[in-house]
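hi got a favour to ask and not much time before my train. below you get a single protein, a line of residues and a line of whole numbers that encode the local backbone shape. could you go over both lines and see whether the tokens make sense for that sequence. a few lines back from you is plenty, here it is:
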Amino acid sequence: MQMRIYYRGPDALITASQFVWLAETPRIFAVSDLRDAHITRRKVKGAWAPATAAAAAATALVLAPGYAILTSATARLSLVGVAALVVTLAILRYRTGSHWELIANFGGRRVTIYTAWDTTTFHQVTRALGRVLESSPVIAERPRSVAA
């Protein structure tokens, strides 16, 4: 018998019996053991490492070819201004962000079963989990069933 797949993406797989979060270390959860699931949006501050890397890469990509091609001081100064703008935007973008979390009780503990920065992907995953729960009469009838 073939297992029905409700969602298959680059970071999650949801079947009728399992919720698999394909993180750096994959995490597998039996859907029937999930309790009291809820969605949280968490703000993350201080993500300076990605901001610094993005700013350095953007600066190098803007300044290196421009300095080689442009010869006038005004053009080079304008190029530095563009690089400064790119760096500022990169730092502002990465300094404060938010991601979505799906948290549930599993095995008597409260655990994060899925996290995503992209709202669309996150809601696709939670809708798929909802479809699994709606199609399983045992889970749907259970008191305090998972609601995604």
User: Anything to note?
Assistant: Residues 104 and 145 are 10 Å apart (CA to CA). Confidence is low (pLDDT under 50) at residues 144-148. The beta strands are 5-8, 12-15, 18-21, 27-30, 34-45, 96-106, 109-116. Residues 45-96 form one domain.
